[in-house]
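Reply to dn_fold:

You asked what the input looked like. This is it:
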Amino acid sequence: MTSRFGRGLFGALLALALVASACGSDEDDTTPTTTAPPKQSVVTTQAPEPTAPVDAGGLDEFERRAAERAGLLYATIDGSDGWYRSPVDEASRSHMNIVFRLPDEDLEKRFVAEAADAGMVNLKGHRSVGGIRASTYNALPLESVEALVGFMADFRAANA
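and this is what came back:
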């Protein structure tokens, strides 16, 4: 069920907070509010419908798609003869947030800027460690990862 407050647990908690504040007492803060609705009822009615993953093939299908997206990107990184490099041990690599480095920080800045010009945004890594971070969450189609991989090949060819 979708409400104007959003989907899932965050939307449910926001709705609960708004309802609770609307039902609050005009008395001092030490008086408990007894008119707030039961929390579980609100959470249950605001939970996302479980049919989306089922209709798309279930969790196994989502895992397969995540592995395919991440595998394509990691293959590009690992196949670059060290030009792109992952600082994460292979056994600990994420399927959702893929981080990698380029030969130097100036190239990383240029990579982020040129990728943004090509319509690929939010690739800049965390401010404390730098690098590049590509998020490949479930909503991202494989075609977007293919576009990034193509951009990476072109960028490397132009700057190696």
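The chain has two domains: 8-49, 58-159.
Hope that clears it up.
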